[in-house]
Specification:
heterodimer, A: about 325 residues, 6-stranded mixed beta sheet, globular, B: mainly alpha, MetI-like fold, 12 helices
């Protein structure tokens, strides 16, 4: 497949502060991409520049063979679902969804609005005011409002962060279904690695305005390319590797407690349902480990033997900077 | 006297001073006698009816209405964009602009009136009507900016971006998305401006000429010659008009939450 959306040497700045520095990224048509990173990493800024709400300092954005770097937002065929949904409070659900179509003087307006509402399961809510809807419903209105415009790329800013846990799962399935049905290319921004892993075809991990790693969820999960990514996806113990001069990283479950060549002192323990999580002070540094909840608990202060098997570690090029 | 009783007494005194003059004016206007007096000498509606036949009142009422309506509209035409700009953009010296815009509230009207007369009307030969219009617009502007500002501050900025992404221009987004959502504030500003302009005396006092007077100034002039109850009757009618406007505004848009 050829590249559909290409960001080339994209540099973005607010005033004098550079938020994103010479970023390069290619996305295929129909992909579901997650921009993942902590706040301030430049992921939202990147998304806003794709939408045209921020003009790049340098570099270019191409969509479907067209240079859209300096094109007005409304002419880019890019939709954006805002984190706060940004519904128009003075208009009904129907009129919110119809807003863009009216500006376009769409001939088939009513049918398209109704179809859009049906897609997100809100057919019975056309005449409500946005304020009379729940957060999840408001988000679906925002989704329909963008979808009816038939965008080439749909951007979503933290689509799940304002929802409670149950709705989050529902919305995740909903987004996957909409993507399957419409085939629209989706890019969503999130700071939550579990959301990115569950939803995306590919994850773009960002840090300090640059890309750390691009890969499929399995790849990011099992083979982080840097200490930053490793730490971000839950490799909590990172130690230098004398053999390669790089570093090794273990998830808590990959550390075997009870026997092994090393010993440490239990600093703290917390019960997490399926597992018990330990923080150990050791001559190597702080090690985080876990045991199944069924295993007998170790009290704080206890001496315990442990092993850091090389086979269960992720190999990293360097220690965290 | 118990503290509770003292509190009631203070409340009674305050209410008397707030409402008392209003009651006295209404009753004085109902007098059957020929001079302004309280308690009224007999009861009749003749002065309330006579008010409508006094020609100078008709002219000055029209003048006051014109100033209140068009002065307020002009102030809103300037004030809404100003409030929007001050809130949405990083304007250099925004605080200074806010302060200057508020000046007509702080500077005594006498000074504004005298200043306009001495340095605008006299040197340029500007008509009194035009000067009054400018003065009232300037006086209402601070209220327009403040009340509208409060509404704009409460409005999320991302709905404008959403509108732009859906095909609006920036100006279109303002018209289609911002204005409809601040209309309560705009209406509140209009009412506040209207009442402020209509009741304005010190500035208008300096800007009066042959045949060009606002109603309050005309009433003062009338009283200097005719000391009859018609001024009391007219005052009562104006007070009722203000109360009715504010009451309607409160009922239909919750006026008090904007002011």
């Amino acid at each position: 497949m050829s590249d559909f959306l290409t960001l080339q040497d994209l540099t973005l700045a607010y005033g004098g502060t550079v938020a994103v520095d010479r970023l390069n990224l290619s996305i295929r048509q129909g992909e579901l991409i997650a921009l993942l990173g902590p706040s301030g990493c430049g992921k939202t800024t990147t998304m806003r520049s794709i939408a045209g709400l921020l003009t790049p300092k340098s570099g270019s954005i191409r969509l479907d063979g067209r240079d859209i770097t300096r094109l007005a937002p409304s002419r880019r065929e890019v939709g954006l679902v805002f984190q706060s949904y940004a519904l128009f409070p003075h208009l009904t659900v129907y009129e919110n969804v119809a807003f863009g179509l009216r500006l376009r003087r769409e001939a088939d307006l009513d049918a398209k609005v109704r179809a859009g509402l049906a897609t997100v399961g809100l057919s019975g809510f056309a005449d409500r005011a946005p304020a009379a809807l729940s957060g999840g419903q408001q988000q679906r209105v925002a989704l329909a409002r963008s979808l009816v415009m038939n965008p080439k790329v749909l951007l979503l800013d933290e689509p799940l962060s304002n929802l409670d846990a149950r709705l989050r799962l529902e919305m995740r399935l909903e987004l996957q279904r909409v993507q399957r049905e419409t085939g629209v290319t989706m890019i969503f921004v999130t700071h939550d690695q579990s959301e990115a892993l569950a939803l995306a075809d590919r994850i773009v991990v960002m840090r300090d305005g640059a890309i750390e790693q691009v890969g499929a969820p399995e790849e990011i999960w099992t083979a982080p390319a840097s200490a930053f990514v490793a730490d971000f996806v839950g490799f909590e113990t990172i130690l230098p590797d004398p053999e390669t001069g790089g570093a090794l990283a273990w998830r808590p479950a990959a550390v075997s407690l009870g026997e092994g060549p090393h010993t440490g002192t239990v600093r703290g323990v917390s019960f997490a349902g399926a597992a018990r999580e330990y923080v150990l002070d050791t001559p190597l540094g702080v090690v985080k480990a876990e045991t199944p909840a069924s295993a007998p608990p170790l009290p704080p202060g206890a001496e315990v033997a442990f092993d850091l098997p090389r086979a269960t570690a992720a190999l990293l090029p360097a220690m965290p900077s | 006297m118990s503290p509770r009783l003292a509190a009631w007494a203070v409340l009674a005194v305050v209410l008397t001073f707030l409402i008392g003059p209003f009651v006295i004016i209404i009753l004085a206007g109902l007098s059957a006698g020929n001079s302004l007096a309280f308690p009224p000498q007999g009861i009749s509606l003749q002065w309330y009816l006579k008010v409508f036949t006094i020609e100078s009142f008709q002219a000055s009422f029209a003048m006051s209405m014109f100033l209140a309506v068009f002065g307020t509209l002009a102030a809103l035409a300037l004030g809404i964009p100003a409030a929007y700009g001050l809130n949405r953009y990083r304007v250099p010296g925004a605080e200074t602009v806010r302060l200057v815009v508020s000046a007509p509230i702080i500077v005594p009207g006498i000074i504004v009136g005298l200043g306009l007369l001495r340095y605008l009307v006299i040197p340029t030969g500007l008509g009194i009507g035009a000067a009054l219009f400018l003065a009232h617009t300037a006086l209402i502007l601070p209220y327009a900016v403040r009340v509208v500002s409060a509404s704009i501050e409460n409005l999320r900025t991302d709905i404008e971006e959403a509108a732009v992404l859906l095909g609006c221009t920036r100006v279109g987004a303002f018209r289609k998305v911002v204005l409809p959502n601040i209309r309560g504030g705009v209406l509140a500003a209009f009412i506040l401006g209207f009442v402020t302009s209509f009741n304005q005396v010190p500035v208008s006092l300096f800007l009066s000429g042959p045949g060009v007077r606002t109603l309050p100034v005309d009433m003062i002039a009338y009283m200097e010659i005719n000391y009859d109850p018609s001024v009391a009757a007219l005052s009562a009618l104006l007070a009722f008009m203000s109360v009715a406007i504010v009451f309607a505004a409160e009922k239909f848009l919750g006026f008090s939450k904007y002011v």
